[in-house]
Amino acid sequence: MGAGLEKKVLIELYLASLSGGKASPSLLASRLGMDIRECEELLDDLASRGLVEAGYSLSREGREAIKVVLTGGVFDVLHVGHLATLEEAKRLGDVLVVVVARDETVERLKGRRPLNKEEDRLRLVSALKPVDMALLGDLEDMFKVVELVKPDVIALGYDQKHDEEAIREELSRRGLDADVVRLKIRVPGVKSSMIIARMSGRGAGAQERGENRS
Fold first, then answer.
1. What fold does the segment set 3-64 form as a domain?
2. HSE on the CB side for 50, CA within 13 Å?
3. What letter does residue 27 receive in the DSSP assignment?
4. pLDDT at site 198
């Protein structure tokens, strides 16, 4: 069996742990299009090599065999710029986990309620091809999700107002080890703020001021 299939199994076990569920051989076989006996043999082999523990959970070595990327945003009005950003983030690793900002967080930071409620934004982001799992952010502590995901890489959008060094310092304080990178990809002329401005009829002046950026 190829290394690619082994990695897919490890990824599925990791994602199951994030969702609070357990991955059974039958579930894994169904998700990966495998025969259940073949899946059981593969799990046994991974366990014999110390990559999988009892109860079909990843060992430390199993977790280190995959590279997890974490990114986040509001995703209020999905557009090709979001897709390009997520595609670039996914290229940094094997698994892409996306944090979707809560409605209250958006209102606190941007001074407005999002056009689409958090459950809808979460569902839409989850359906995008580059995304392996989407999670709602914490209302008070953005690093709670980071502690859950334990990413290898945190990818920031080119225009997100986050201080990379401040994030690195907080990661160190919490005993988390992750690279923090700033993505460079951008699609000229496509921003949520521009789309929202056009929808609300505020015109080019509001667009240039970058009001209600997402």
1. Arc Repressor Mutant, subunit A (1.10.10)
2. 3
3. H
4. 60
* Model pLDDT for residues 24-77, shown as the tens digit of each residue: 899 999 999 999 999 999 999 999 999 999 889 999 999 999 999 999 999 988
Residue at token pair 């670039």: 88
Nearest to 73 by CA among 161, 196, 195, 149: 161
Architecture of domain 68-203 in this structure: 3-Layer(aba) Sandwich (3.40)
d(CA 24, CA 29): 8
Q: How far apart are CA 86 and CA 114, in angstroms?
A: 20
Rounded Cα distance, 60 and 48, in Å: 14
Is the distance from CB of 93 to CB of 67 less than 8 angstroms? yes
Alpha-carbon distance 28 to 49, whole Å? Answer: 19
Q: How far apart are CA 60 and CA 53, in angstroms?
A: 9
Distance separating alpha carbons of residues 104 and 81, to the nearest angstrom = 24
Q: Which run of H or of E encompasses 181?
A: strand 179-182
Q: Residue 24 is encoded by which pair of tokens? A: 């059974």
Domain edges within the chain: 3-64, 68-203
Q: Which of 118-151 are b and which e, b meaning 16 or more Cβ less than 10 Å from the residue's Cβ?
A: beebbebbeebebbbbbbbbbeeebeebbebbeb
Q: What share of the chain is helix, strand, coil (3-state, %, to 5)?
A: 50, 15, 40
